[in-house]
């Protein structure tokens, strides 16, 4: 069985998905973390993100020399991608980078990596493989629309942008990150824009998804809403 939880950054997807998976004895897959792993790899390889911003398809013929080089480097990164997920810890080239992928520098650049067609194809393939013959809760942006359009239950979480920024701010301050609420708010708005307007699998609610606004709800309330939808969908 597949439960798809989609929605914008900070809408509560990962907290809700993780706790529900524990309670229902499902496996949890955080697909955003996979896009973050590829972004971290590209940052480590010193890919120029200023130029990468303009690239959405690695099979395009770019005349510009620097773009050509970036496309070749991104292709190499995807061909040799070595990522792994064990017990909700994330590994890049065998190293646990679970904390590093949450850093602001990754958040600032991940949407531009996630809009590249071949990055999506590669990660969607891995997501389907990972979920084969298991009960899985996946969270992301395109789970109910593209990765698992036949998922048994589809949830679309939304929340006010400032409330989402405050949630992220609290998390990052606890990790001693040097960042302001305003910076996070701007990053969230920018990511919403890139994620929902991109050509490949944009962030949209699947027609048959249930929308839950989490702005004024507690985690428990949202989980209860989803559990009751689950009971109804099983009937
Ligand atoms: O959920 P998150 O904030 O960790 O996701 C990071 C980025 O990855 C997000 O800005 C868009 C992208 N993403 C995506 O395009 N598709 C997914 N299924 C999950 C995340």
Molecular structure report:
By secondary structure, this protein is α/β, with parallel strands linked by helices. It has one domain: Rossmann fold (3-Layer(aba) Sandwich). 52% of the residues lie in helices and 14% in strands. The chain has helices spanning 13-24, 31-44, 49-52, 65-79, 104-114, 117-131, 143-147, 161-174, 181-197, 219-234, and strands spanning 2-6, 27-30, 83-86, 89-92, 95-96, 136-140, 153-158, 210-213. The protein has a 5-stranded parallel β-sheet with strand order 2-6-1-7-8. Helix 2 crosses helix 5 (104-114), helix 2 (31-44) packs across helix 6 (117-131) and helix 8 crosses helix 9. The longest helix has 17 residues, at 181-197. The chain binds 2'-deoxycytidine-5'-monophosphate. 2'-deoxycytidine-5'-monophosphate binds at residues 9, 31-33, 35-36, 110-111, 114, 140-143, 191, 195.
Set down the secondary structure blueprint.
Layout: E1 2-6, H1 13-24, E2 27-30, H2 31-44, H3 49-52, H4 65-79, E3 83-86, E4 89-92, E5 95-96, H5 104-114, H6 117-131, E6 136-140, H7 143-147, E7 153-158, H8 161-174, H9 181-197, E8 210-213, H10 219-234
Parallel strand pairs: 1-6, 1-7, 2-6, 7-8
Antiparallel strand pairs: 3-4, 4-5
Helix pairs in contact: 2-5, 2-6, 5-9, 8-9
This protein binds 2'-deoxycytidine-5'-monophosphate (DC).
